[in-house]
Please model this.
Amino acid sequence: MKKLDFLTIGGMAFGLGLVIWGIAIGGPLSTFVNFPGVLITVGGSFGAVLINFQLGQVSQVMKITMQVIFEKQVEISSLGELFVNLAQKSRREGLLALEDDMEEIDDRFLQDGLQMVIDGFEPDSIRDILETEIHTLSQRHQLGQNLFRVWGSLAPAFGMIGTLIGLVQMLTTLDSPDTIGSGMAVALLTTFYGSILANLILIPIAGKLEIMSEKEIAYKEAIVDALLALQAGVNPRILQEKIKAYLPPGEKEMVYGKKTSPSGAESEEAMASSGR
Model:
């Protein structure tokens, strides 16, 4: 399931809003509008991206951008209850009984892994197949991140190119001193456009893609470990603890309601209180 990421949209709107507000306080907004400058900065940098990447890779830019706006929901915490139920059922009825639960799972990666467990694949084969898929996923994600990082590094450079073009055009009109000030302002606008494009949009998108990728990879790695534990017939409680280990401390407390002492202090205190 995908969910609209209001933080990404809100962050861009907030940043652009403050920049526009700051400009409006100091003077008219029309001073910062220069269509040729936008063409040089955005068009020129995107043209360089076309040279740097292959057509099929660049064609995914819109799809990748939509992934940032509509984030795929992958919550490791949701795996705990699912695998506990699967483990309990498999201990009662056997692994083949889990075939009935396949339709209720909407994650293709989890479906494929569970099907391999039911079909009796060797544990090493299951891990190898699923980890290969995770590695391939990671490479696809890195491509999207690299594309936006490269574009983010090129935008300021083309902003400087636009500035140089503006300066050359200004120098050709030195016989008209009245136009020098306005010409210089227009020349500097392309540098402004390049900096805004890179630092408020492109580089932050690359960073968000990296965070989303790490989260999804951790989610899939948790699935791999849980599937192998399920196949080995591990106790459902132990399986839940294995999944819980993938959660950050704050999320553990939020999901499970209390801290779990790694040293087993809680169980010792419980035994002491019961007089054992």
Observations:
- The beta strands are 2-4, 70-72.
- The chain has one domain: 2-257.
- The chain has a mean pLDDT of 83.
